[in-house]
TrEMBL record:
GO biological process, one term: translation
Source organism: Pseudo-nitzschia sp
Name listed for the protein in its UniProt record: Large ribosomal subunit protein uL1c
Subcellular location: Plastid, Chloroplast
Alphabetized InterPro entries for the sequence: Ribosom_uL1_bac-type (IPR005878), Ribosomal_uL1 (IPR002143), Ribosomal_uL1-like (IPR023674), Ribosomal_uL1/biogenesis (IPR028364), Ribosomal_uL1_3-a/b-sand (IPR016095), Ribosomal_uL1_CS (IPR023673)
Length: 231
């Protein structure tokens, strides 16, 4: 069993058996306990009262946080030739069609997100085995199949991203960096919570949230009281 550092032990003690009912205080503690030598990401872990094996209890959607997540996303666009200029002007890092499909087939995936226009989807079907496991397969539900490239690229460049509950019903996602201001982190966290609440699956009966916690990459878990979020 790995030996815990004194710093980590002290951080754990600060948050042990505590549930924070004030988001400002929770974020303050999160930033205090993020003492790694690199800029840590901050994460939300929401345990939901859902069973994703049922279609009406699945959660998969997108959100655009007010201040982004502190990461530049490299976007590839798969479309026909006449849309190349529009995609490039809207901020796409890679634009292509047949050549891009061939590169993906060979395992050359030099992007974080793939957007496709609807007419290209039949050609992408054969790439499901390559893109699927990496979470890169475009889909209308995630907003990555679109005929309005400029608007779609603008949204994703601003920080729009997809999140979903895993097979145990937990959402794990980043909502910023520890070097954001406390106000930025609070506003991002509130927006993320609101998105999860707004997209409550129709099959949920009774209580939706089981537990909520936040942490930095190397920091301890900080539990949140549901009352800490404004109605």
């Amino acid at each position: 069993m790995p030996k815990l550092s004194r710093r980590h032990k002290e951080n754990v003690e600060k948050t042990k058996n505590k549930i924070y009912s004030n988001l400002d205080q929770a974020i303050e503690v999160l930033q205090e306990t993020a003492s790694a030598k690199f800029v840590e990401s901050v994460e939300l872990h929401a345990n939901l009262n859902i069973d994703p094996k049922y279609a009406d209890q699945q959660l998969r959607t997108t959100v655009t946080l007010p201040h982004g997540v502190g990461k530049q996303v490299k976007i590839a666009v798969l479309t026909n030739d006449e849309n190349f200029d529009e995609a490039t002007n809207a901020g796409a890092d890679i634009v292509g069609n047949e050549e891009l499909i061939e590169n993906i087939t060979q395992g050359n995936i030099d992007f974080d997100l793939l957007i496709a226009t609807p007419n290209m989807m039949p050609k992408l079907a054969k790439l499901g085995r390559v893109l699927g496991p990496k979470g890169l397969m475009p889909s209308p539900k995630s907003g990555t199949v679109s005929s309005t490239l400029t608007a779609t690229l603008t949204d994703f460049k601003k920080g729009k991203f997809e999140y979903k509950a895993d097979k145990t019903g937990i959402v794990h996602a980043t909502f910023g960096k520890v070097d954001f201001t406390s106000t930025q982190l609070v506003e991002n966290l509130q927006a993320f919570y609101d998105s999860i609440e707004k997209n409550r699956p129709s099959g949920v009966k009774g209580k939706y949230f089981k537990s909520l916690s936040i942490c930095s990459t190397m920091g301890p878990s900080i539990k949140l009281d549901f009352e800490s979020f404004a109605a």
